[in-house]
Amino acid sequence: MIPIIQPLFGPEEQAAVAAVLRSGWVVQGPRVEAFESDLAAIGGAEYAVAVSSGTAGLHLSLLAANVHPGDDVIVPSLSFIATANAAWMAGARPVFADVAPDLPNVTPDSVDRVWTPQTRAVIAVHQLGVPFDRQEMRRLCHDRGAVLIEDAACALGSLHKGEAIAADAEFAVFSFHPRKVITTGEGGAILTNNPEHAERLRRLRNHGMSIAADQRHAGGKREQYLEPAWNFRMTDIQAAIGGEQLRKLGEIVERRRLLATRYEELLATCYEVAPLQPRADDHWNVQTYCVCVAPGQGEPAARRDEVLRRLNEQGIGARRGILAAHLEPAWHDLLRDPLPYTEAWAAQSLALPLFHGMTDDDQQQVAGALVEALQQVP
Ligand SMILES: Cc1ncc(COP(=O)(O)O)c(C=O)c1O
User: In terms of Cα–Cα distance, which of 296, 355, 338, 344 is closest to 321?
Assistant: First the structure.
């Protein structure tokens, strides 16, 4: 079996977890605080607020942005389902914007086209770690009086025009699910440069409590519950793993970029797949290596699906690339404009295995099986 991804864990993570267990303090505490400060530095933001998942991070960002029931939130349909669901979690309505033909990201034009009088926020996704144009999107949201929330779930370690992904961000949300470049098992974080947002996010993740959990347990201070809220805390066990993973981030991203170059070489003469090509001035973390499969004569996704089935049959853990929320039962009935590029990406994109320990042989096997499947499936 060649998996789609495999976390890079070593003795460092094991020792860090063992130290937390020995300390006896396993819920949110000093390790979360240390993880947050390391993450803020790497992400290029003033503040980081760790949470239980990227989804929780999107949800809390919308609440901190004062999105309320009755508001609209513009999101790409082309994303993991959590992006659309986050709008619903805040009681708002997701409004789907199309993506670009050449990149799986929404653009200022596509967002502008679906703007409604109720639009209060935009969640734009750095899809598969490929940055969208942050300056242009910020300008549009600023001019229209809406909040920009960056779904950077996949984008830790990517640079946009030489800058870290959360530089100057109002809200940039990261995920540490094992499909991402680094992982804490489950986990997420919101990076912000606004101290009031940071304070509100800390409160919202912890039952609306006026002080942090470790201060409360240390005694001496009595907490107040300032507003109804959630338990979206990250544990110190997760944060200890995350701290070690962050130290490996540079090495992991370099390796992923190298493996992506190798795939490009192996598939250079296979004209029936087109690799995802980020802008030349962006540094892509290659969170997912994705190709678009030329469609066949049948249903738009039929050829990609059959190729995928054949790869999986041979133990190659390829996956369909990016889903379109509006094609899933959960969001099928939502009124929307046509989304032609979204549907093309959803039908043709195919994610190939890519992990730190992947060998030349593994890559040759994947590329060989892909070329063979394409020859056999018209
Ligand atoms: C674009 C995007 N947004 C949000 C999420 C949700 O993150 P999590 O799984 O940590 O809740 C994911 C992935 O899992 C994602 O890929």
Answer: 344
Q: Is the CB of 79 under 6 A from ligand 1?
A: yes
d(CA 80, CA 86): 11
Determine the atom of ligand 1 nearest the C-alpha atom of 126.
Answer: 1
Distance 200 CA to ligand 1 centre (A): 22
The two tokens of residue 346 are 């959803």
Q: Residue 219: pLDDT above 80?
A: no
107 alpha carbon to ligand 1 midpoint, in Å?
20
Q: Which domains does the chain have, with CATH numbers?
A: 11-246 (3.40.640.10), 250-376 (3.90.1150.10)
What CA–CA distance (Å, rounded) separates 292 from 320?
10
pTM across the whole model: 0.97
Q: How many angstroms separate the alpha carbon of residue 82 from the centre of ligand 1?
A: 6
Give yes or no: 221 in active site: no
Query: What's the pLDDT tens digit per position in 313-339?
Result: 999 999 999 999 999 999 999 988 999
